[in-house]
Amino acid sequence: MSEKTGSKFFTQGWIQVFIVFVVCIVTQGFGLYSFSMLRIPMTEMLGAEASVVSLGFSVYLVVSGVAGLAVNGLVSKIGIRGCLLIAAVMYSGGFLILGFVNSLWMVFVAYAVMGIGNGCGGLVLITAIPSNWFIKRRGIATGITLCATFPASLITTNLVAILTAAGSWQNAPMILALISFIVLLAAAFLIKFRPQDVGLYPDGMTKEEAARVENEETAGAVKVVGLNRSQAIKTFTFWAVIISFGLIGIGEQGVFQNFPTYIVSTGFDLATAGVFMTFLSIAGCVGKLLSGYFIDRIGPRITYVVVNVLAASGLMAIVFFGANVAVLYIGGFFFGAALSSAPVCFTSAVSKYLGPAYFAALYSIAFLAKTIMDAIGVPALAAVGSSGFGWNGALFVGAAFILVSAVFMLVGGKKSKLLSKMEEDAAKELAEEVETAKA
Questions:
Q1: Is the entire prediction scored with pTM above 0.85?
Q2: Are residues 235 and 89 in the same domain?
Q3: Residues 193 and 262 in one domain
Q4: 72, 176, 366, 420: which sits with the fewest CB atoms below 10 Å from its CB?
Q5: What does the angle CA 52 – CA 164 – CA 179 come to, to the nearest 5 degrees?
Q6: 250 secondary structure, DSSP code
Q7: Which long-range contacts (CB under 8 A, 24 or more apart) does 48-51 make?
Q8: Which CATH number is 243's domain given?
Q9: Range of the domain at 111
Q10: Is the residue at 220 inside a domain?
Q11: In degrees rounded to 5, what are phi and psi of residue 378?
Q12: Given a cut of 50, is residue 324 above it in pLDDT?
């Protein structure tokens, strides 16, 4: 890599990661962490059952997943700028509606609108950026961007808490709406979907350097090859990734959202539960970065399996010894680290095993599977916890889903033979282009 090319890529590539990190604070953090806080004053004001108001978040998850299916087509037709402009209007619009909520139906409308915005500018789109820009550092770049949930949790929880205490909680979603609109509007003009859009190649390589690298995956990324939806659905790899990502929704989100109730049921107070949930968020950041580091070295398949076996082991330790604070936090660390590693692993898995060309089209299906299972997992494990099996039974079920998810990744997390052929052809084509240019 020439110094000039490498320097230019380093500047552009990591600037893109930083911009996506800021977008992640809004699209991944604001929606996720504001709801649990806003639900309390909304429930009190509307005089509705908390479980009914909670359906608004289920609407948000499902609509986000369905809207994400259109991202690949939208990028092709109106570009990433168009997608982010739609996201700016719809996502901030959802928060704005929450600021004027005075009846239950408005909660559902607000979260449906917000879900459309998140689908257009959320996880499916923004994880494609580090995936497109990096090969050697794809894992760590993705991990860094998804660490944005931690500052998002600090912003939203404190903002809502302060304004609610002041008796003006509806100002909180309106402020979040303004921040979201500004961030997404600016990102629409700053984010570049692929390095090729600005005359660069992944990892800053020139075409000549990519042709010399003894790695056909690199040539495939430079030429942007990959399986489309119709090709992918015929492979076992695709279905293994879909099933694995879906199952982890039950095993992780189902446990995560019910953890405070479990902790209180074991004799701890609500303050302890709150501190523990913050601890899980910190563990999540550590997990994302470590997962990204190891993905770049041993691949997403083995990383995912190891991380989630540790997570299931941590949950089982809590089941048997959860009354011990030390065990609670040690087991919680392994669970919390895995909780945030799944999107990092699956982002890399889709690019590595199915190719980057149609990343958004394929990842959106996996993301939809997870959002549906997220929506199912939370009430399902709550039902188990309220039954004769108790909350220990709920954690045991969550651990079982995590292990089955890991098994599917272990068995099916392999590069498609069709992609290998595409990458071989890309390497030959790249070499021929370089030779032709020299002649």
A1: no
A2: no
A3: no
A4: 420
A5: 90
A6: I
A7: 48/104
A8: 1.20.1250.20
A9: 3-199
A10: no
A11: -65, -55
A12: yes
Quick one: CA dihedral 3, 8, 12, 15, positive or negative? positive
| C-beta atoms surrounding 331 within 10 Å | 24
For residues 304 and 341, the answer to whether their CB atoms sit within 8 Å is yes
Residue with tokens 């995590």: 402
Count the Cβ atoms, other than its own, within 10 Å of residue 274: 13
Biggest CA–CA distance in the chain, Å, is: 77
Report whether pLDDT(6) > 60: no
> Does residue 401 fall inside a structural domain?
yes
Contact 145, 20 (CB under 8 A): yes
In a domain, 432, yes or no: no
293/373 same-domain check: yes
Please state, in angstroms and as integers, the Cα–Cα distance from residue 209 to each residue in 69, 135, 425, 437, following that order: 35, 14, 17, 14
Residues 278 and 137 in one domain: no
Q: Which is more confidently placed, 213 or 227?
A: 227
DSSP string, 99-140: TT--SHHHHHHHHHHHHHHHHHHSHHHHTHHHHHH-STTHHH
Q: What is the dihedral of CA 372, 373, 376, 381, to 10 degrees?
A: -160
Same domain, 175 and 290: no
- Radius of gyration of the chain measured on its C-alpha atoms: 22
Q: Is residue 205 part of a domain?
A: no
Residue listed under structure tokens 């990734």: 241
In 3D space, the residue among 92, 190, 180, 141 whose CA is nearest the CA of residue 343 turns out to be 141
Q: What is the C-alpha to C-alpha distance for residues 95 and 88, in angstroms, rounded to an integer? A: 11
For residues 20 and 77, state if they share a domain. yes
Backbone angles phi, psi at 70, to 5 degrees: -90, -5
Whole-angstrom distance, CA of residue 417 vs CA of residue 216:
13
Q: How many residues does the chain have?
A: 439
* Overall number of domains in the chain: 2
Question: What's the one-letter identity of residue 386?
Answer: S
Stretch 71-97: mean pLDDT = 91
